[in-house]
Amino acid sequence: MRPILEVGDRFIRQVYVLTICLTVIVSAVLLVVKRPALPSFLIGSAISLSLFWSMEFAIRRLIRPGKSKKTKYLLGFIALGKYTVLGVCLYFLFKMDWMNVYALAGGIALVQGAIVIKAIGLMVGILSNKDSGLR
Description:
The chain is mostly helical. The chain is built from five helices and no strands. It is flat, with a radius of gyration of 19 Å.
């Protein structure tokens, strides 16, 4: 029997799937309600997913028991490069007249929202199992 509170590969895959589903749903709503904000939201969503993927990639490849100081420096270099590219992209995005800052921020917050939704689901699952055990 697997534990109820399990965060692993399956959890990360579910976060990706939930984020993509939320992107599609919110994009459909924006398409109907506020079409000019759609490109900004999609760019923010792509940024969010790419940051999450790059963090997962770096951790899976570099964090291993018994690794040396070289790993820390490599992780620092990757983070510095990633955030430098992000800063340059955001600089040019903010220069664009068509960019909607609120939609971009909503897209960037999408992965975090998916993680919060999954965490609430885990808590509800734990609480419902406790309640069913009491009866």
